[in-house]
Amino acid sequence: MTFHATVLTLYPEMFPGPLGHAIAGRALAEGRWSLDPVNIRDFTTDRHRTVDDTPAGGGAGMVLRVDILAAAVDAQGTGRPVLAMTPRGKPLTQARVRELAAGPGAVILCGRFEGFDERLFEAREVEEVSIGDYVLSGGETAALVLLDACVRLLPGVMGAASSGVEESHESGLLEYPHYTRPQQWEGRTIPEVLRSGDHAKIAAWRQRRAEEDTRLRRPDLWERHVGARVGRPLARGDERE
């Protein structure tokens, strides 16, 4: 089963963009996934190809019309989740990315202007997704982020099957720090444990650093991680909370 992404956008020329390069681009060329950018204006019915109108109740900007959006979504058929990229959505997580990557693909709706007419989400099964607590000029950049996160997890895309296992957010923690040659650089040395050859000690050091860095940098993640381990033995360093 090939992962098939359809992107509903006012700017189809933005795709594949960076997804046409590096591992995502190679995977696209090899047919491990497919991408179909679709212009939302193709579903308009007036000669001006109008997709937006003024906000009900007044205010600045324009709002994407529900009738045009619904027609664009309905034309894609069923069987794949429909995601709308919007800062009002539920934050995208690595767990959700894995679910999407394991499926047949997705239909991704890119917002513009002031956003979507809310009736779209009342009348259609559309999942609102946010990639962070900030606002972009459009959903296309967010769609690229979502697709890059999914594509790299598809079978055969990453060079090593284990490449994605120990990364940040896979276990609920940030990833441990990495080092490589040269051993000495500007007076700084690679930690001795990583040069010891003792795999058990290296694994323990990496786990400890992952926990310490998560606790210091992302206390929100650390609280969820500790909460998920209620009833399990404390890992080294937990007593310092």
TrEMBL record:
Task: Give the reaction(s) catalysed.
Answer: guanosine(37) in tRNA + S-adenosyl-L-methionine = N(1)-methylguanosine(37) in tRNA + S-adenosyl-L-homocysteine + H(+)
Q: Does the keyword Membrane apply?
A: no
Q: For this UniProt record, give its keywords in alphabetical order, as a comma-separated list.
A: Cytoplasm, Methyltransferase, S-adenosyl-L-methionine, Transferase, tRNA processing
Primary location group:
cytoplasm
Question: Which superkingdom?
Answer: Bacteria
* Annotated GO biological process: tRNA N1-guanine methylation
Which GO terms label this protein's molecular function in UniProt? tRNA (guanine(37)-N1)-methyltransferase activity
GO cellular component, alphabetical, reads: cytosol
Q: Where in the cell is it found?
A: Cytoplasm
Residues annotated as domain tRNA methyltransferase TRMD/TRM10-type: 6-223
**EC number(s) on file:** 2.1.1.228
Instruction: Identify which top EC class this enzyme belongs to.
Output: transferase
Q: Which residues of this UniProt protein bind S-adenosyl-L-methionine?
A: 111, 131-136
| Annotated function | Specifically methylates guanosine-37 in various tRNAs.
Member of which family?
Answer: Belongs to the RNA methyltransferase TrmD family.
Its assembly, as annotated, is:
Homodimer.
Protein name as catalogued: tRNA (guanine-N(1)-)-methyltransferase
- Which species expresses this protein natively? Sphingomonas jeddahensis
Gene symbol?
trmD
